[in-house]
Predict the 3D structure of the following.
Amino acid sequence: MPQGQTQITVNANLNPYAFLITYVHEVAHAAVHQYYRSQWRIGRKRVEAPHGKRWKTTFQQLMQPLLSETVFPVEILQPLTHYIANPAATTYAHPALVVALRQADVAVAAPISVRRIMLKDLPEGKDFQFAKKTFRRGTLRRTRVVCKEMSSGKSYTILAHALVEVDYDE
Ligand SMILES: [Zn+2]
């Protein structure tokens, strides 16, 4: 930016976990940029690739305090911790992390008669749609909610932060 400020832009359509990882990724770039800018003043040149060693180290340091079950559900935390051990330019280099993040993704489009809500905010006993199936919300267990799948009667645990669909008139 003109006055030497840094602007970070992140796509707003990412789920909260993907957003946080992407945001910290960009903060690491900004921190590396600041570091090299201070180096230029004493006459050195930037020689590193954008996702080189200094970026990796900075990204790892910034992510470290966030690698906790209070921030990420364990399903994401596990592959994320693995990814952070040797971060690549994109999370797509780590399929297990991509799958875990996709599970927390917002559905792309839905009819107007349907509204989306975080499962944790739905009252117990209410029915909802998730992954094209109908469930009944049960009790919260740490980061997941026990839910009954209505057609089979089986119990599943679903991420408390998952976005589920509820009919408008409910
Ligand atoms: Zn990058």
Remarks:
- The beta strands are 114-118, 127-130, 133-141, 144-149, 155-159, 163-167.
- The mean pLDDT is 85.
